[in-house]
Design a protein that fits this description.
This is histidine kinase. It comes from Phenylobacterium kunshanense. It catalyses: ATP + protein L-histidine = ADP + protein N-phospho-L-histidine. The protein is an alpha/beta fold and about 400 residues long. It has helices at about 20-30, 40-50, 60-65, 70-75, 100-110, 120-190, 195-215, 225-240, 255-275, 320-335, and strands at about 10-15, 35-40, 55-60, 85-90, 110-115, 225, 245-250, 255, 285-295, 300-310, 335-340, 350-355. It has a five-stranded parallel beta sheet, sandwiched between helices. Strands 7-9-10-12-11 form a five-stranded mixed beta sheet. The radius of gyration is 39 Å and the shape is rod-shaped. It starts with 11 loop residues before the first strand and ends in a 35-residue tail after the last strand. The structure holds adenosine-5'-triphosphate and magnesium ion. Adenosine-5'-triphosphate binds near residues 318 and 347.
Length: about 400
C-alpha cells in the first residue's frame, strides 16, 4: 500500500490503515472515475489536506485511537469559502443514532457524513460524488471571492492614483496662478500702469485662485455655494467691516464650473459696489441671499445680490468687463440666466440656475459671517486694495 503523493484539489483522501480497506476503497473510487489518494496515518492525511483535496474518507477507528486535534484545528482554520467534506466509515453496530461518538466527530470536524459498514460500493460512490459536488461549489465561491477582492484592490489602486494626480494637478494650477499673478504685477509695473489697474487685475486673479482653493479642498467634486460666497466676500468684509455684506441661504452644492463663475461674478459685483454702489458710502449694505426650489430630477437655484442704503443709482451709460462677465460669462456657465437691474435705491443682480442631480440639500443655513477663512491668498501684496472703499 503506497501513499499517493500527487496533489490535486479534487483528490479523495483515504485514511483506512487496517487490512486491505484502503486498497479496496481506492479501487472502488478509481473505477468510478475519482482520484483516490491513500494516506498512511493522520499526520499524512493532514499533510495531504494542506496540499489540497476534495474530500476525505476516514474509518472511525482512526478517530477513536488517534488524537485528531491537528485535523480539527485545520477545519477550524478554514477560510470563509471552505467547508471540507469528510465521510466517516462508521463501525458495524446497532445504527448510527446509537453511536454517541458521531456527535463528537461532527462537532470537531464540521462537514461530516457517516456511512455505516458494511455498505454497498454504489452507496460509497454516490456519497463521494455528492461531497465532491459540494467541494466544487466551494471552489467556485473561492474564485468569485478572489476576483471580487482583486477588483476591489484594483479599484483602490486606481483611486489612489487618481487622488495623486488630482493633488499634483491642484498644486500645478495653484503655482501657475501664482506665476501669472507675478508676471502681471511685474509687467504692469514696467509698463507704468496705474496702481488701480494693477490692483484690479491682481484681485481678479486672486478671486479665481480662492475659488480654486475651495474646489481643491473638495477634490473638485463641487463646492458649497455659501463657502464660495464667503471666500469671495472675505476681502471686502475685511476692508469695510463684516456686517456690510450679509450672506444667507440653504446649504447647496454647486458643480465646479458654477462655483468658479459665481466666485468671479461676486468679485465683480462687490468691486462695483465699492466703486459706485452701496459699499462706496459708510451706510450702504449688500445682502446676498439664495434659495432652492425642487423640480423634477433637478433643483432651481435663485440667488439675489441686493444693494441698499447706498448712493442714488442711475442706469449706466457704458458697460465694462464686470457687467459683461456677470451677464454673459456667468449665465453661460450656470445653465441659467443672470440679470442686473439698476433701480435708484441700489443695484440688484438676480441669478437663476438649474442644478441637476443630487448634491443639493435644503437645510436652512444661518447668514454667513465667516470672514476669516483662507485669507492667505488675499494677504498677498496688492490683493486687498480693491476691498477698500475708494478714497
Ligand atoms: N453697484 C453699482 N452701483 C451703481 N452703478 C453701478 C454699479 N455697478 C455698476 N454700475 C455702473 O455700471 C457700469 C458698468 O459696470 P462694469 O462693471 O461693467 O464696468 P466698470 O466697473 O466701469 O469697469 P470694469 O468692470 O471693466 O473694471 C459702471 O461704470 C457703473 O456706472
Ligand atoms: Mg466693474
Amino acid at each position: 500500500m503506497n501513499e499517493t503523493a500527487a496533489s490535486g484539489p479534487e483528490r479523495a483522501l483515504i485514511l483506512a490503515p487496517f487490512g486491505r480497506d484502503s486498497a479496496v476503497a481506492a479501487a472502488i473510487l478509481k473505477e468510478a472515475g475519482f482520484e483516490p489518494a491513500i494516506c498512511m496515518d493522520l499526520p499524512a492525511l493532514c499533510r495531504a489536506y494542506d496540499e489540497g483535496a476534495g474530500l476525505a474518507l476516514i474509518v472511525e477507528e482512526v478517530l477513536q485511537d488517534d488524537d485528531f486535534r491537528p485535523l480539527a484545528g485545520r477545519v477550524d482554520a478554514q477560510p470563509a469559502w471552505s467547508d471540507f467534506p469528510m465521510i466517516v466509515l462508521a463501525q458495524r453496530g446497532g445504527g448510527l443514532e446509537r453511536n454517541p461518538a458521531t456527535l463528537r466527530y461532527s462537532q470537531a470536524l464540521g462537514n461530516v457524513s457517516f456511512l455505516e459498514r458494511p455498505f454497498h460500493p454504489t452507496t460509497l460512490v454516490s456519497m463521494v460524488q455528492t461531497a465532491l459536488r459540494g467541494r466544487r461549489r466551494q471552489y467556485e465561491a473561492r474564485d468569485r471571492l478572489e476576483a471580487l477582492r482583486s477588483a476591489v484592490r484594483r479599484q483602490q489602486q486606481d483611486r489612489q492614483h487618481l487622488r495623486l494626480m488630482v493633488n499634483e494637478l491642484n498644486h500645478r494650477v495653484k503655482n501657475t496662478l501664482a506665476t501669472v499673478q507675478s508676471i502681471v504685477a511685474h509687467t504692469m509695473r514696467g509698463a507704468d500702469a496705474s496702481l488701480r489697474t494693477r490692483d484690479t487685475l491682481t484681485s481678479r486673479i486672486l478671486a479665481l485662485s480662492k475659488a480654486h482653493d475651495v474646489l481643491t479642498n473638495e477634490q473638485w467634486s463641487g463646492a458649497d455655494l455659501g463657502e464660495i460666497a464667503a471666500q469671495a466676500a472675505q476681502p471686502f468684509r475685511l476692508g469695510l467691516g463684516e456686517g456690510r455684506i450679509s450672506l444667507s441661504g440653504p446649504k447647496v452644492r454647486v458643480p465646479p464650473k458654477t462655483a468658479i463663475a459665481v466666485a468671479l461674478a461676486l468679485h465683480e459685483l462687490a468691486t462695483n459696489a465699492v466703486k459706485y454702489g452701496a459699499l462706496s458710502t459708510p451706510e450702504g449694505h449688500v445682502d446676498f441671499t439664495w434659495s432652492l426650489k425642487r423640480g423634477r430630477g433637478h433643483k432651481d437655484l435663485t440667488a439675489v445680490w441686493r444693494e441698499r442704503d447706498g448712493p442714488h443709482v442711475s442706469p449706466p451709460v457704458r458697460r465694462g468687463f464686470g457687467s459683461r462677465l456677470i451677464e454673459k460669462g456667468l449665465a453661460a456657465d450656470l445653465n441659467g440666466t443672470v440679470r442686473i437691474d439698476y433701480p435708484a435705491d441700489g443695484v440688484v443682480c438676480t441669478i437663476h440656475a438649474r442644478i441637476d442631480g443630487e448634491g443639493t440639500s435644503e437645510e436652512p443655513a444661518p447668514a454667513r459671517r465667516d470672514q476669516g477663512r483662507g485669507s492667505a491668498a488675499f494677504a498677498a501684496p496688492g490683493g486687498a486694495v480693491e476691498a477698500s472703499p475708494p478714497a
